[in-house]
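Researcher: Let's do a round of design. I'm pasting the structure tokens now; please hold your answer until I've finished.
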């Protein structure tokens, strides 16, 4: 008689520790991946962003956990990581869950994953719901190439600077934002990207009051000024591809300024813009000099000056 084996659907046993990153529902609890239940039951340690939310989730799923539950959030992530790594080194199966979506994606997790990898500890994942991919799919904007920018800085100046860094990005952009800052963020996007750049505001995804509002950035900013509630994901169309004939002197100067504000030296910025536009560096240089001279003239009320930009 042969010995019995564990069911194929059960989590695999491991001689050493294993870190499991598990996706959790972003709204509708019915979206929880089936493997999440098994991992919650099998984990010896469960690191949760919010232990109260974890209790609500396990109750809704009808799961009984036996593992030790610890909090793991932004405020204690650095201090608690060594403790979890020690548990992993001692052979524990550690499950990491956040309030919603995948750990590490604008949520706690990166430090623990990096520390586990450094110690050559196995890391695996239970794929689950993602606000980023859900919003992309619903946006109606191109999804063949995209980049996730997370949360923008809270301060207005830093927010504008971050947006200017991607002003010419051709891939679709995805952001998370707090509802009380949404109107300011959309207004800043309209200022940097242009009033008519298309975007989609995805609110309360998979929840009862799910809403996807699509339109030009200026129009969306005006709508958001009236007040918006819920968890927000913003998807913004990438910059249009342009050729030399499409770029006037003003646009060339703007692109140089964007690069300078992002930290590039002027000479390097001019060279980069010239390469992007397929133009001689001298043409971009002359446009920057002319703009600087025009600004001087306007400020002093006298004739234009000459010299290096």
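Researcher: That's everything. Go ahead.
Model: Designed sequence:
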């Amino acid at each position: 008689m042969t010995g019995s084996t564990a069911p194929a659907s059960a989590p695999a046993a491991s001689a050493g520790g294993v870190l499991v990153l598990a996706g959790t529902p972003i709204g509708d609890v019915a979206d929880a991946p089936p493997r999440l239940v098994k991992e919650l039951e099998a984990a010896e340690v469960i690191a949760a962003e919010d232990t109260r939310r974890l209790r609500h989730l396990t109750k809704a799923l009808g799961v009984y956990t036996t593992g030790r539950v610890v909090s793991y959030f932004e405020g204690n992530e650095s201090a608690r990581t060594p403790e979890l790594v020690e548990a992993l080194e001692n052979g524990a199966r550690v499950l990491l869950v956040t309030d919603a979506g995948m750990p590490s994606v604008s949520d706690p997790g990166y430090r623990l994953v990096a520390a586990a990898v450094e110690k050559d500890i196995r890391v695996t994942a239970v794929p689950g719901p993602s606000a980023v991919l859900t919003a992309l799919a619903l946006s109606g904007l191109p999804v063949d190439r995209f980049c996730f920018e997370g949360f923008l800085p809270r301060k207005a100046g830093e927010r504008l600077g971050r947006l200017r860094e991607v002003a010419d990005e051709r891939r679709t952009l995805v952001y998370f934002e707090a509802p009380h800052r949404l109107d300011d963020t959309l207004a800043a996007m309209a200022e940097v990207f242009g009033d008519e750049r298309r975007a989609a505001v995805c609110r309360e995804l998979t929840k009862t009051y799910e809403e996807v509002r699509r339109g030009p950035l200026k129009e969306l900013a005006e709508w958001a000024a009236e007040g918006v509630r819920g968890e927000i994901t913003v998807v913004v169309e990438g910059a249009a591809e342009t050729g030399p004939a499409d770029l006037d002197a003003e646009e060339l100067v703007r692109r140089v300024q964007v690069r300078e504000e992002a930290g590039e030296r002027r000479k390097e910025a001019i060279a980069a813009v010239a390469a992007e536009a397929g133009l001689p560096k001298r043409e971009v240089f002359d446009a920057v000099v002319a703009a600087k001279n025009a600004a001087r003239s306007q400020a002093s009320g006298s004739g234009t000056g000459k010299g290096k930009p």
